[in-house]
Amino acid sequence: MSIMELNGGSCVAMVGKGCVAIACDLRLGNQALTIACNHEKVFAATERTYYGLPGLASDTITVRDKLRQRVNLYAMKEERTIEPETFAHLVSSTLYERRFGPYFIEPVIAGINVKDEPFIAAMDLIGCLNFAKDFVVSGTASEKLFGMAESLWEPDLEAEDLFETISQTLLNAVDRDAYSGWGAVVWVIEKDKVTKRWLKARMD
What we know:
With 204 residues, this protein is of the alpha+beta class.
């Protein structure tokens, strides 16, 4: 068994027309045993940048707190809000610092930059960045998420259509993965607002 499968969980981010969406499931498990179904893995870095941290639950919390500190230090030092592209490199360097004893998480980042352009990125557990123009996935249901996203995603989706697409992608993928599921949460980020919605899912 991979250590990445100990607690389970999956995350996906998608680009739309002037908007971006990021979603995760809510399961916290100990291998096949489900411990909780309210374990969110997506956090806000800024008002327009969000990131998901699926993987080992203790490392999710550790890295979340470390990133919060570094984003606050950046805001104090630079006197401006960190952009999603810069935040992606911050996460990457934070993970690469620990490359010989890594954090067991695979981050997904989504946001709207200062030009109101959508941005998404993903990386492995030592911070190797993967930029994309369509969608990125991570977690135990990655293979299923790739298949669903390839089938459902289209360019230039409006915010509501993007929400529907990412929701169907995540729900159908985690239904085929024993380590993910038990509910989901979706964030849709637009230039002037952020919408958070909870989804019901199979509870078996």
